[in-house]
Amino acid sequence: MSDQNDAISELSFEAALKRLEEIVRRLESGDASLDESIQLYGEGDRLRQQCEARLQAAQARIEKIQIGREGQPSGTAPFDPA
């Protein structure tokens, strides 16, 4: 399972999201056996965690542009999601 976790952690956000969508479609189809469904669910959960971590990291890097008195950019401040 560690190899699979390593492989997931190396996926780009887009690749992880695409694989997660494939897993959801497979599970929703009802064609997977119980054992396969359990495996897919576990992989999907790890992919979801990876995507969430990537989004949180991206959000932490976002800065908002501050506008000065004359309407011109005057610098940046950390992103505040609230």
TrEMBL record:
User: What is any Pfam family matched here?
Assistant: Exonuc_VII_S
Broadest EC class?
hydrolase
Where is it chiefly localized? cytoplasm
Recorded GO CC terms: cytosol; exodeoxyribonuclease VII complex
Keyword Nuclease on entry: yes
Its recorded reaction(s) are: Exonucleolytic cleavage in either 5'- to 3'- or 3'- to 5'-direction to yield nucleoside 5'-phosphates
Gene Ontology terms for molecular function: exodeoxyribonuclease VII activity
Q: Where in the cell is it found?
A: Cytoplasm
Keywords annotated in UniProt: Cytoplasm, Exonuclease, Hydrolase, Nuclease
The record's listing under InterPro entries reads:
Exonuc_VII_S, Exonuc_VII_ssu_sf
Q: What is its EC number?
A: 3.1.11.6
Q: Name one GO biological process term.
A: DNA catabolic process
Q: What functional role does this protein have?
A: Bidirectionally degrades single-stranded DNA into large acid-insoluble oligonucleotides, which are then degraded further into small acid-soluble oligonucleotides.
Name the chain's protein.
Answer: Exodeoxyribonuclease 7 small subunit
The gene behind this protein is xseB
